[in-house]
Structures are given as structure tokens and as C-alpha cells.
Amino acid sequence: MIEGLMNIYATDVVIDPTDSNTVYYTTAAQAASHLEADPNKIFVTKGIVYKTSDGGENWEELPTGFILDTGATGVYINSKNPQDIFVTTYNAPRPESGQGRDTTDSEQMGFLKSFDGGINWQSIHSLPVGFEAVIESAVSPREFSHIFVSPFSPRDQQPKSFYSVDGGLTFKTSNIFLNIIEYDPYDSSGNHLLGYQHTTMGSNLPAIYESNDAGANWKKLSDAPQEIINNRQFLEQASNIVWDPKNKNVVYLTGAGGYVWKSIDKGKTWETILSLEELSE
Predict the structure, then answer these.
(1) In whole angstroms, what is the distance from residue 121 CA to residue 108 CA?
(2) Nearest to 223 by CA among 213, 238, 243
(3) For residues 149, 184, 210 and 155, what is the CA-based torsion angle, rounded to 10 degrees?
(4) Residue 192 and residue 189: Cα distance in Å, rounded?
């Protein structure tokens, strides 16, 4: 997939649920990350989303437009109307002398929305100024208007998460910040979510949280797996939450160190089923 004039950055991929030959691939208007690369050379010319309709033989760069250093962080397709596409973005200039990327005072593209399969796009600026650079997001697979995002935060403010029940036109602040979120695919209302917080506040330990009101309010469901608690310096960066497609009670959590944890009670307790040590054997 990555050849010719395509950007080296791959940020997300989604397959049209009604046509497996149609795939969307998101990227970034950023220069190559290795130090000897030209920091002013980017590979996109029209936008930060690519599309194929023939299973990957040919790719079209879609005209989303872009701002230098902007990347798409997530792409979602409405399963009830696959022409309806939603993309989250962030803009963080390339750091100087090894400093981390900072979104403070950076112009943001907001959310990108297409209603015709990527032919035309519009930008939606519905998050508060300073909180538009989205790094983590989820959209309900059953109720496409329900969206939850966790953006970068300004340097002088506490991190916040936001939720929407109108397709991203408006957002409200959630009661806690979460690093990972996932909607329950078995919940047709789009109101049940699980989340993970490793950015601990005060004396709180990394933990799994649950919401039953579309992300407005969360309650602690369980402590993070014990390996995370015991080795937070290296393992607190859990990466994904996935429901078993055949059993609504089974949920998986992935993390650093090759770890995979399994819950058979919807996240209340966790069992380690894979680690780096097992992968190395």
C-alpha cells in the first residue's frame, strides 16, 4: 500500500462494512520522522485520507485539504449509510531538539465529515479552543451519532474528554479524562462504553471505567491488571479494548510488554493470557 507518492505515515484503516473492496486509509501532512529527512517535504497534495474501491489496486487521495503537520487520528464509517464518513485530526508541529510535540497555539482542522463517500468534505470545529487536537477517539458502531474523544490539552489546563450524541456537531465535557475508550458493540443505544485511564489523578491507580450514559459519567469498574499496577513506569500504556465478536461478556485489553488480558465478566476482573516472555519462548 505504501509506495510511489503515498505518505509514509499510516494512522488508521477502516473497511466499508457493506463492501470489503472499499477501504479508507488515513495519513499525515508531515515530513518523514528520521532526522536526515527534509522537514519541509511532505507527500500529500490534496488531503490526509486515501480511498480504494477495488481492494487496494488503486488509491485515490481524497480532497480533505490539510494544514502542515496535521494528521488524521481516526476514520469511521456509518454502517447504516457507508457514504457517511467521520475523521478525527490533530495538528502538532515538529519538535525542536527532541522536545515532544505541542499543540498549543496550533491551528487545527477539527473534525472532517463527508456525506458522499469522500468526494466532498467539511470541517467541524465543535470542541473548545485548545482541545481540538484529538489523539484518542471512538464512535459507536450501532449509533453513529455517539462519539467520544480524548484530545491533547493546553499546557496550562488539566486533560479533558468529551462526548457527543449529535454526530460531532456539539460536545460536552465528560466527568473524567480517559486514555482509551471503546463502545460496546452489543449495545444498540450507543450508551454503554468501557474506558481505561492511565493518566492518574492524585492517588488513583490505573483503572477500567464504565459509562452507561454515552460517556457523560463514568464509574470505576476494576483496577487495571496487576502487571500494570506493579510496573507502571513501563506498562501503564495500555493500547486497546476489544469485545469478543461472539460473546458479549468477553473483553480483551492489550498493552505494552506484549501483554494481552482477558475478562469474561465485561471488565470486572482480568486474566493474563499473553506476555512478552511467552512470545519470546
Answers:
(1) 15
(2) 238
(3) -10
(4) 8
Closest CA to 5 of 46, 64, 37, 65: 46
- Whole-angstrom CA distances from 154 to 83, 103, 146, 271 are 34, 7, 25, 37
User: Rounded to an integer, what is the distance from CA 85 to the centroid of its chain?
Assistant: 15
Q: Characterize the bridge pairing of strands 172-173 and 180-183.
A: unpaired
Angle made by CA atoms 203, 131, 78, in degrees to the nearest 5: 105
Can you read off the three cell numbers belonging to residue 190?
Answer: 450507543
Place of cell 485539504: 65
Whether the per-residue pLDDT at 278 is higher than 90: the answer is no
DSSP E strands, 81-202? 85-91, 111-114, 122-124, 134-139, 147-151, 162-164, 172-173, 180-183, 193-197
From residue 68, alpha-carbon distances to 27, 44, 92, 210 in Å are 12, 10, 9, 37
Amino acid (1-letter code) at residue 258: G
User: Around 18, how many Cα atoms within 13 Å sit in the side-chain half-sphere?
Assistant: 9
The per-residue pLDDT for range 222-249, each reduced to its tens digit, is 999 988 888 766 655 788 999 999 999 9
The one-letter amino acid code at 1 reads M
How large is the C-alpha radius of gyration of the chain?
A: 19
Half-sphere exposure of 38 (CA within 13 A, CB side): 4
Report the amino acid identity of residue 203. Answer: S
